[in-house]
Hints:
It contains one helix and 46 strands. By secondary structure, the chain is mainly beta. Residues 85-453 form the Glyoxal oxidase N-terminal domain.
Amino acid sequence: MKFNNLLLIINVLVTYLxxxxxxxxxxxxxxxxxxxxxxDANDGKWEFVGKTGVSAMHMTLIRPTKVLxxxxxxxNPEALIANGKYAYSTLYDLTTNTYRILxxxxxxxxxxxxxxxxxxxxxxxxxxxxxxxxxxxxxVRLIDGCDDGNCDWLEFPYELDSARWYNTMASLPxxxxxxxxxxxxxxxxxxxxxxxxxFEFFPKEHxxxxxxxxxxxxxxxxxxxxxxxxxxxxxxxWLFLAANKxxxxxxxxxxxxxxxxxxxxGGPRTYPLTGTGALIPLSYRNNYQAEIIVCGGGTxxxxxxxxxxxxxxxxxxxxxxxxxxxxxxxxxxxxxxLMPDVIHLPDGKLLYVNGAGTGMAGWxxxxxxxxxxxxxxxxxxxxxxxxNPHVKKGSRWSKFAEDPIVRVYHSSATLVPDGTVxxxxxxxxxxxxxxxQCEHPTEHRAEKFYPPYLLNGVSRPxxxxxAGHTKLNxxxxxxxKYGQTISVEVEVDSPTPQFTSSLSHMGFVTHSQHMxxxxxxxKVDNVKKSDSGYTMDITLPPHANIFTPGRHNYLFVxxxxxxxxxxxxxxxETEN
Length: 576
């Protein structure tokens, strides 16, 4: 059946169902675009897939087919709970493109998240009372993903030692979670009277948060600092920290600076002049060498029309005297990008989506629920950019097809197991602003972006067995150990496949921070033809400093750089 570039609109109407806790399960109208409506395979393809019910200020892949969506407490007309209040968290199903409303009662506005080794999502911080919900500043919220419709939030409103708004979290090699920074009140830019230059752990190590000089040195652009667990020898406990223009290596066990790094060139790279930082994909081929790239940001806090930062800076931490090396941000540095999201793709490249070409992150305090705001960021950057870190400078960037939906402040994106990128959110408005009410409306529409590696005609492998297990992406992730060589079986329609493999953790996404996200290339040996396809041996990372333990880690098998039809969730068991 041919659609000739028209949209097929399928209205799916499902009666509201009430679960035991009176939360509504809501099936939303689903709009599909015919796959033949794609642009050139070199440009990638966008597909509108459904609605998230609430705006995706925060998101994380919490099950192989489920994305956890978290907004702030406020107006969400498409997500009413049974008592007439608006919901602000949903669980989005990637297979049905519908959502289930979750129950939250502490304000999650501009909060953070990370996973414990047991697979529990820990979400902390937030903002003041609003929309009838509790203060979220000191809140700890826990949730375990599920496929049976029974999971929901467990909240502890005063569990943090102090208030945190715009904090950052990271999963640690020892299975705990690190939590750093923020402010004790909402603000446009941090101030001395409200800053929180401390860190703490979950579960708690001390009753009170401990001071860290780095946040004082990077003031005032020190909200949502970049935190990355650094690969290194087993037992190493080093973090890369970056905020404003400052960067350092810091030991979370000794609580001491390991090395001061040079200031990052260009303007500030963190909120509200928001750029993004990432760990260059790791590989066994170079002994998991640690390189960091920081891209984009703003140039002038006082000018809504100031151009966004159009550079990236890259540093090799394995060098004896590490220095930042400037790179363009996109082909020919044609425009800068504020508030970009960076996705670690399974082929070892980085994809940048979302953002704006001018201004700063934030919204206008003068806005009211009757007066749509004047947006602080403009010129949406709608073309995805692909960065290949493995080729020479000047040849690293590619630009793809324009997103038909504007994604600016409070948008988010994450890799999902089929190799596509799930993109949602965008709400630069103090109050809900509908499609025809303002230039950049409150977005509940979700899309998938298909990178060109899915449109090149190469046969995609299907993983059929992992480490002796044939029940894959089931209720339990496949248990594996560090350094283990596992047998993997695949089916693929190709007489001459070329297999590679990687392990991905998609992280927790908000405000251009992809907390704990990373990908590592795995060694593939002993590829053999079998009656049903191919078998191979894949060696997992040697220890937890290379890849943190727990669930939510996804094994990809690629054929000639094209990901398989779905990645398989592994459970890396905590080291003794």
